[in-house]
Design goal:
The complex is a heterodimer of chains A (423) and B (551). Chain A has 423 residues and is an alpha/beta fold. Helices cover 42% and strands 10% of the residues of chain A. Chain A has helices at 7-12, 37-42, 49-60, 68-75, 82-87, 96-109, 115-127, 162-167, 172-184, 201-204, 209-226, 236-245, 258-267, 328-336, 361-364, 366-382, 393-406, 415-422, and strands at 148-149, 157-160, 189-191, 230-233, 254-257, 279-283, 302-306, 310-314, 340-342, 387-390, 411-414. In chain B, a hairpin with a 6-residue loop joins strand 12 (243-244) and strand 13. The chains are: A alpha/beta (423), B alpha+beta (551). Bound molecules: iron/sulfur cluster (2 copies).
Chain lengths: 423, 551
């Protein structure tokens, strides 16, 4: 796809501004009614999906040119997809999320990039991670763990830690817990250790399509060499990349997030919690596990019109609107832990508010990113919960940083941490 | 135009550098494409409202006042808009400053006892309703839906909608006002000026509501409204709507005292009689001919799709082929929806009995297929929150209303069918969606308490397809011609052509004068001219504040 392929959508966007709000039916208060962090923070229309359609059309029609403002408009999009969900409450023939991504791709192709993103791409190319860390240390989190190292050793299931869980010292414990849990359940699991590479999902959301394709290709080759049939991860970004972005490139591996795996173990009666965890918690749906975590459905079709002017597709096009994302497994796990009381925030599931770490915003617009996280923390605190639980290290990192900056007085956990406490 | 540096700087000093922009790309996100709906004039392919000179995001009435004073100083036109639903919220003249009011979005007061709220421009129907429900109150939501600014609908537009029936329309519900007048002075109207409380729309002295609003609202052309008080009404439901269901088939199960019926009638006369009887008996919380916007032939199939999260628009033909869907479609040709809400169990029992008697007298019936729980609960939520107005554009992204406007319900008997059949012949030509001709929708009760109807015949087209756009315009011209020939008058399709031409700009004065002179009550526009002279001496608005200067 190219930006010009979205020209029809640019005309068909009805500038209704639904993309600035959570689905209206779900609104419970004035305070937590917005969905798009970038327009909530920067306020001009151009920072919403409708505005980005207009900016894209303006660029495409050469009515405006690249500028610092245009770069900011495009790169402050978290690609969180909240706009997409709200738009599709009513619309069946628009793809706002795909369009904002395409707008990013087009800017990167035109070298309208940000220094912070370029630095991250350099790290990716040299060190195969986006955290400016040496690739030789990627597997250090698993030192001392009795786990098979692929490809020299064999295992049925690959646990992919991802950049954040591999290198972030505060969060590595989630990867350790995941592997220990899988092993204790008798799962034949292995890791790639220092041979593991970035999934590419985060650079994709920054507009670096070529780099993404390159790393997807590398990862798929490594998996093929190691005979990997199933990949499990505890990172929502990696999950999304493997589950949604790799299949169109040819990947056929089964992809599971740890919360799906654990829920399965609970349902099969293999995992039982023995310890009480007396805690009131609320759960944050990561964008890439929740609304963007819907399974990929292959489609190769064309637009057609019925009834004169109704736009549909031949064959029928799969609809990604957040209806079938991964929402219940983490909740079911939390509910099955004795003592845990799960209280819900106002914006949940498909209309969840983003953590603020997406789309390269954390790296390039730290203030905006921190504000977005603080908004979520305020929402979590309003539930009376003492802890904010999630299933993505990027969300957790952003929340932890915001809490330490603001002293918000809320604990942050990964679902796995509570699982571990309850064993 | 780019603003001269010192002028831009003067505005920037008021709002701060982050709240002003004249970047062309930003300005282009404040233009309205007349291709997808001109509400109600076009459509015109590849035509946009003019690019503004700058966009400003004021944060307070004080900032608005300073901006307006600068506009007077430098003789720059300005246009305030809050939620940008309507084409009329965008500048129609070159070199206009666009004020985007979204930063002023607080609910300042929610007075449970006296049943009103004080809001800033950025407050939308959905958020006010969500907050009001917490204290047992509700707000009227205009036909444009709950995404729209409450203040803008009440002060600057017609503000009619499904809940007119019980909740009054926004014009009725507008209480006190804070108005940054076109010269930059601030005027507070109603009781707030004398008592500091917003409970009453009229204070001692002459009424200022009509002066401030003008006929059908001043549409951002006569200064800026920065606060207003809105009357609320009773909500005997839960504090938060207990929404369930998989997107987009959200639905709500409400207490036993709530009903959502689709009523249908054997003739247009019976349809209109039922509306009169409903008003006479005083039953109903809101009433609307809603789903007919999809078209007489498509409405039930669309309801089936929208209430099933596994279905998409691509399933339409298959759903339409279902004999049961065809049966219900036939059964509900002349229909409307009504929500009954009982304040007590006795009340709802009485309303139910009264409705049954109305149906008995008019030979009408309840469409039972619309009463199965998953559809009933979806309809209830849909109409109470009115948060699906983008479905107006579901088919291909373009729609506009034809025929219609405000009038007696007997229009149904008088010309609805003829207009529908006329449209049907045009649908067959292919430029507009083939939906069955009758796509008329609108509130059953066009103003507070009922008494009139408001309707428009939805015309859906593809704004990206030149033939579709031009064919639609041809159809609209034909509608106007037919309306004039038949004595129905000019319909919605040309409502605003008096203010804006096919290039998206203000029409020339001579043209406007000619049209205003031929209006049924030209004196309204003469009076507005005098108001504009007195309140807007530098004429810094646009032609949406309609004036006639012929003497
Ligand atoms: S992107 Fe969708 S929700 Fe946003 S303005 Fe366009 S049509 Fe409306
Ligand atoms: S993806 Fe997220 S940040 Fe980007 S426009 Fe949509 S809602 Fe806003």
């Amino acid at each position: 796809m190219a930006l010009k392929d979205f020209a029809a959508e640019m005309d068909r966007c009805s500038v209704c501004s639904y993309c600035k709000w959570i689905p209206f039916d779900q609104m419970k208060s004035w305070r937590f009614a917005k969905n798009c962090p970038s327009v909530a923070y920067y306020n001009f229309n151009s920072y919403s999906a409708r505005g980005r359609y207009a900016v894209a059309r303006s660029l495409l029609n050469e009515q405006s040119e690249y500028s610092d403002t245009v770069r900011n408009i495009v790169h402050t999009c978290m690609t969180c997809g909240a706009c997409d969900v709200s738009c599709k409450v009513c619309r069946y023939n628009l793809e706002p999320l795909e369009m904002v991504r395409e707008l990013k791709f087009s800017l990167v192709e035109a070298e309208q990039v940000l220094d912070q993103h370029e630095a991250l791409i350099a790290s990716l190319n040299q060190e195969h991670n986006i955290l400016h860390k040496p690739k030789s240390e990627r597997g250090a989190w698993a030192d001392g763990l009795d786990v098979a190292r692929l490809p020299s050793e064999k295992a049925e299931i690959l646990f992919h830690a991802g950049c954040r869980l591999s290198y972030d010292e505060d969060l590595q414990k989630t990867a350790v817990s995941a592997v220990q849990l899988l092993k204790s359940m008798g799962v034949d699991v292995g890791i790639l250790g220092e041979k593991e590479m970035c999934c590419g999902g985060r650079v994709y959301s920054m507009g670096y399509r070529d780099e993404f394709n390159h790393f997807a290709d590398l990862n798929m080759k490594v998996w093929a060499n190691a005979g990997v049939k199933t990949v499990v991860t505890a990172c929502a970004d990696c999950y999304h990349a493997f589950k949604r972005l790799y299949p169109p490139l040819g990947s056929q591996v089964e992809v599971l997030h740890m919360v799906e795996f654990i829920e399965r173990l609970i349902q099969q009666g293999k995992l039982r919690f023995r310890s009480e965890v007396p805690m009131t918690v609320t759960y944050h749906d990561p964008c890439h596990l929740g609304r963007q975590g819907e399974p990929y459905v292959p489609w190769n079709g064309v637009e057609k019109k019925i009834k004169g002017q109704i736009i549909v597709y031949e064959p029928n096009k799969p609809r990604y609107n957040g209806a079938w994302g991964v929402y219940d497994p983490p909740r079911n796990i939390l509910r099955s832990i004795p003592g845990v009381k799960l209280v819900e925030m106002e914006r949940i599931r498909e209309y969840s508010w983003c953590c603020g770490a997406g789309g390269g915003v954390r790296e390039a617009y730290p203030e905006f990113s921190a504000w977005t996280a603080a908004e979520r923390i305020a929402e979590a605190k309003a539930t009376g919960a003492e802890a904010l639980v999630s299933a993505c290290p990027w969300c957790e990192r952003n929340f932890m940083d915001s809490i330490s900056a603001t002293g918000a007085g809320l604990q942050v956990y990964d679902v796995l941490a509570l699982v571990e406490k309850a064993l | 135009m780019t603003l001269p540096k010192h002028v831009y700087q003067a505005f920037e000093d008021v709002v701060g550098a982050v709240n002003i922009s004249d970047d062309p790309a930003v300005l282009d996100s404040y233009r309205y494409s007349l291709a997808h709906t001109a509400i109600h004039l076009g459509p015109f392919y590849n035509t946009y409202t003019p690019r503004g000179a700058a966009v400003l995001l004021p944060g307070s009435a004080k900032e608005v006042q300073a901006i307006v004073k600068l506009c007077n100083k430098y003789r720059i036109k300005f246009k305030a808009s809050s939620t940008f639903w309507s084409a009329q919220g965008y500048p129609s003249e070159e070199d206009t400053i666009q004020l985007d009011m979204r930063r002023m979005d607080r609910i300042l007061e929610l007075d449970e006892k006296n049943m009103f709220a004080v809001v800033e421009p950025g407050v939308i129907g959905a958020t006010l309703q969500a907050e009001a429900m917490k204290v047992g109150l509700n707000t009227h939501i205009p036909g444009s839906g709950c995404s729209c600014s409450v203040l803008a609908s009440a002060t600057s537009y017609f503000g009619s909608g499904p809940s007119n029936l019980y909740g009054g329309c926004y014009y009725d519900n507008l209480l006190g006002l804070e108005w940054v007048m076109p010269t930059g002075e601030i005027l507070r109207t109603g009781s707030v000026n004398s008592t500091g409380s917003w409970f009453c729309g009229e204070g001692p002295g002459p009424s200022m509501k009509g002066v401030a609003r003008g006929f059908l609202g001043a549409k951002g052309s006569m200064g800026v409204f920065t606060k207003c008080a809105i009357k609320l009404f009773a909500w005997p439901g839960p504090k938060t709507l207990p929404v369930e269901g998989v997107i987009p088939a959200y639905k709500v199960s409400l207490p036993e005292t709530f009903r959502a019926y689709t009523l249908a009638f054997p003739s247009w006369k019976a349809w209109a009689d039922a509306a009169h009887l409903i008003w006479d008996t005083g039953i109903g919380y809101l009433a609307h001919r809603q789903f007919n916007m999809f078209g007489r032939d498509l409405k039930f199939a669309m309801v089936k799709i929208l209430t099933d999260p596994t279905k998409t628009l691509g399933d339409l033909e298959e759903v339409l082929a279902d004999p049961e869907v065809q049966r219900i479609t036939k059964q509900s040709e002349r229909d409307f929806q009504i929500i009954l809400v009982g304040m007590t169990a006795r009340d709802i029992a009485w309303q139910d009995a009264a409705l049954d008697e109305i149906l008995n007298r008019t030979d009408g019936w309840k469409v039972e297929a619309m009463n199965v729980p998953e559809i009933h609960d979806w309809v209830l939520l849909y109409l109470i929150r009115l948060g699906h107005k983008n479905l107006n554009l579901v088919f291909s992204g373009g729609y506009d209303g034809a025929f219609g406007l405000l009038g007696a319900m007997d229009y149904g008997a008088a010309h609805a069918e003829e207009a529908a059949q006329f449209k049907k012949t045009w649908e067959k030509r292919g430029a507009i969606v083939d939906a069955g001709g009758d796509c008329m929708m609108g509130p059953i009760g066009g103003q507070g308490g009922g008494g009139t109807g408001l309707w428009e015949n939805f015309t859906c087209f593809d704004p990206h397809d030149r033939e579709s756009v031009e064919g639609t315009l041809e159809f609209f011209d034909a509608c106007t011609k037919l309306g004039l020939e038949k004595g129905w008058g000019v319909g919605m399709e040309k409502w605003n052509s008096v203010a804006r031409g096919s290039d998206g700009r203000t029409t020339p004065k001579a043209e406007r004068d000619r049209m205003h002179l031929s209006a049924p009550q030209p004196s309204v526009f003469r009076y507005q001219h005098k108001i504009r002279e007195a309140f807007n001496p530098n004429d810094l608005g646009d032609a949406y504040y309609e004036t006639l200067e012929d003497e």
